[in-house]
Structure formats: structure tokens, C-alpha cells
Amino acid sequence: MNEPSALRIAHLGTYLNDHLAGSVGALELVEHLAKNNSGTPLEEFFTHLHVEISADQDVLRDLMHTLEMEESAVRKAGAWVAEKLSRVKLGASEEKMGGSAFLQSLEGLTLGITGKQLLWRTLAAAAERFPQLKGPDYAKLEQRAVVQLDLVEEKRLVASRQAFQEAPE
Q1: Is 21 within the bounds of a domain?
Q2: Domain with 61 in it
Q3: Angle at CA of residue 95, ends 109 and 38, nearest 5°
Q4: Where would I find the H helices in 37-137?
Q5: Would residue 94 count as lying in a domain?
Q6: Would 168 be classed as within a structural domain?
Q7: How many angstroms separate the CA atoms of 51 and 148, rounded?
Q8: What's the whole-model pTM score?
Q9: CA–CA dist 5, 17 (Å, integer)
Q10: What is the C-alpha separation between 29 and 105, in angstroms, rounded?
């Protein structure tokens, strides 16, 4: 088997850094959602989700460390800023987030978790050519993402019903 070229390794580094940045934004969003739902069952849900996303982020960081890839501070900062700007766009910067802002936040989270699921699947496939990628249990990580997606989807559907219901007259 041929060793991966320096160019392919650089592309892998970009790919992993993009996903790491996405996890930074996701953690910011989930933290904000937990805070905005303080004292409710949603706070516990988002707090638990934060723990799981953090664990996934640790796996990604460990993998990058093993591959001797540097984390892109610029990408992580960009994700952090993008998450803050999305709050402004949704009108949910500090006040209680509800209605369509909450729905759109859950949809953004769904997109991020779907990306993470695909990340683990991609890395499992790439490990066939990049022996350095072997180690993490990608199937287990992908399954955790699927469970996260299902749980967020339950919340998203409830939020969609609430966001677009007619107000009582």
C-alpha cells in the first residue's frame, strides 16, 4: 500500500480542522440552549448533549494530535463568531429563545450532528488508506451521532409545532 502523499495529508488536516471548528460552534450553541432553558428538562437534555459533543471533540483532537496536525485557531475562532452572529440573526442573543429561533437553532444543530456522523463514516473508510487513522471505534462514534440526531429531531418536531401554531384568539 502506498503512503498517503503530503498533499492528501494536508487535505485531511483541513477536513479535520473544519470538523473541529464545527464542534466549537456546536458546543457554544448547546451551551446557550442549556442556559436559555434553565430549570427545565431541556436544560438537562442540552447539558448531556454538551458532554457527548465534548467527548466527540476530544476524539477528534486526539486523532489530530496522533497525526501531528495543528488545530486551526482561525477556523475555531470563525466558528465561534459564526455561532454568535447566528444568535443575532435569530434574535436570540440574550433573551429566552423560543419560536422559530429555537427551531432554527435545533435545525443548525441537526446539520452539525449529521456532519459529524458523516465525519466518522468518512474516517472509517479513509482508515483503509491511512493506517494512522486506525484506532477510534468509528462505528460506535457514528452510532452515537445517530442517537443524538434522533433525540434532537424529537425536540425539533415539538419546536416546529410550537413555532407555527396559531395563537389563541
Answers
A1: yes
A2: 6-163
A3: 70
A4: 41-66, 73-90, 99-126
A5: yes
A6: no
A7: 12
A8: 0.82
A9: 18
A10: 8
- Residue 107's Cα: distance from chain center in Å? 11
> Hunting for cell 451521532 — which residue is that?
145
Domain annotation covers residue 135: yes
How far apart CA 64 and CA 58 sit, in angstroms, is 10
Nearest CA among 73, 56, 58, 67 for reference residue 12: 67
The DSSP code for 165 is S
Length of the chain: 169
Q: Which amino acid is at 2?
A: N
User: Is 168 or 39 the better-scoring residue by pLDDT?
Assistant: 39
> Which CATH number goes with the domain that contains 124?
1.20.1260
Do the beta carbons of residue 75 and residue 27 sit within 8 Å?
no
Sign of CA dihedral 36, 38, 44, 48: positive
pLDDT band at 2 (very low <50, low <70, confident <90, very high): low
Would the pLDDT of 78 be above 80? no
Cell numbers for 70: 495543528
